[in-house]
Specification:
The protein has helices spanning about 15-30, 80-90, 110-120, and strands at about 45, 60-65, 70, 75, 95-100, 125-130. By secondary structure, the protein is α/β, with parallel strands linked by helices. A hairpin with a 2-residue loop joins β3 and β4. α2 (about 80-90) crosses α3 (about 110-120).
């Protein structure tokens, strides 16, 4: 005796719920993701002169030149010797402000390297001068 089997047609799965779910996930991740993390340093900018009317200096001026040459109140130093010279000046004058300015074709990296050297020498009241 033969038994006849009836084959029912398979139901096709609907893709609509899957597409809806993927769309909701995309929207969720777009809203909850931080695409850029801006980090920076705070800078103080000043303009004007840095000496008082009676001839006494209220500050130390550091001028960064092309190639990493640093001018510390009129004397030029290489990047390596600059920190030692500045440390001696800071020890004598702890409360003086330190002004950093760039001159000529000094790169941003040269200025940031000078800023690092000033901080390593013990400088804390640092301001950038605008030309």
């Amino acid at each position: 005796m033969e038994i006849e089997r009836s084959f029912s047609s398979r139901r096709k799965a609907s893709l609509t719920p899957l597409i809806d779910m993927v769309f909701l996930l995309v929207v969720f991740f777009m809203l909850s993701t931080t695409f850029a993390n801006d980090e920076g340093i705070s800078l103080n900018f000043a303009s004007g002169n840095n000496s008082s009317g009676d001839g006494t200096r209220k500050s130390i001026t550091v001028t960064v030149e092309e190639g990493g040459i640093v001018d510390l109140d009129g004397k030029k130093y290489s990047r390596n010797k600059f920190r030692e010279a500045l440390r001696e000046v800071i020890v004598k004058n702890k409360k003086k402000k330190i002004f950093i300015k760039s001159q000529g074709d000094a790169t941003v990296q040269d200025v940031i390297s000078a800023l690092d050297q000033v901080q390593l020498a013990g400088g804390s009241d640092i301001t950038f001068l605008k030309d």
